[in-house]
Design a protein that fits this description.
Layout lengths: L13 H9 L3 H19 L2 H4 L5 E8 L11 E2 L5 E2 L1 E7 L4 E4 L4 H5 L3 H26 L6 H10 L10 H6 L6 H15 L16 H7 L4
Antiparallel strand pairs: 1-4, 2-3, 4-5
Length: 217
Amino acid sequence: MATHAKSSKVSLTKERRQETWHNLTSEQQAVLKQHIRYQHTSLFVDQNLIGHGSTWQFVAYNYNDNYDANTGPQLYCDCGRRLKHQYVLQNQDGTLIKLGITHFADHIGIPEAVMRQLQTKIHHLDFGLDELLQRIRRHAGLNSEMRQWFIDNHTAYPDLPVDAIDFVAHSLPLEKDVQAEIVRQYKKATYTPKPRQPRRKKPKLNKAAWQELFRDI
C-alpha cells in the first residue's frame, strides 16, 4: 500500500487560534494585523491577478480577528455573509464594494480561474498565519541577546522583510527562514575566536630520569 508524505502545513483549530490571539498583547496583535494586511494587499496589487481589463481596483483589506469567536465587531460581504477576510474594491464611478474572496466571480465578473488562483494564494497565507501562531505558542522567537542585537543592527540588513524589526521588537517569532538568517548573521557578527594556547612541549628525560624509570625492570 502506497504511503503519502505527511503535509508540513500547520492548521490550528479555531479554539487554539482564538486562545493564542487573545494571549497576545495589543501591540503584538497590531503587528500581526499589519503583517496580514501587507500580505493581502501585496497579493491584490499584483495586476496579473486582477487583470488589466478589470474596471475594479483593490483599495483596502480588512482582517476580522473576531471571526473564530463570532463575538464582537464583525466584517461582512455586501451580500450579508460574515467574513474573515474582507476586500474593498472601487470602480471608475467611485462605487465601493466589500467582498469575500468566494464572491468575486458573482459580484464583479472576475473569471473563475482567477478567483481559484486567488483562493489558493489566500489559503496559503492562512496556513502561514497558523504556522506563525503555532510558533508563538511554542515560544520559538529569538532569545533576548539576539533580539537586542538585531534591534541595534537591523538597518545593516535591508534585504530582510520590512516588518522584521517590528516582530523582533515585540518578541514575536519570524518565519523560519527569516529567523534562521538573523541567527546566522548574529553568530557571524558576534563570533570571537578562542585564543590559541601555545603547545607545551613535553620535557625530555635526562639520563638520571631514564635510569630511574627502568630501575625496577
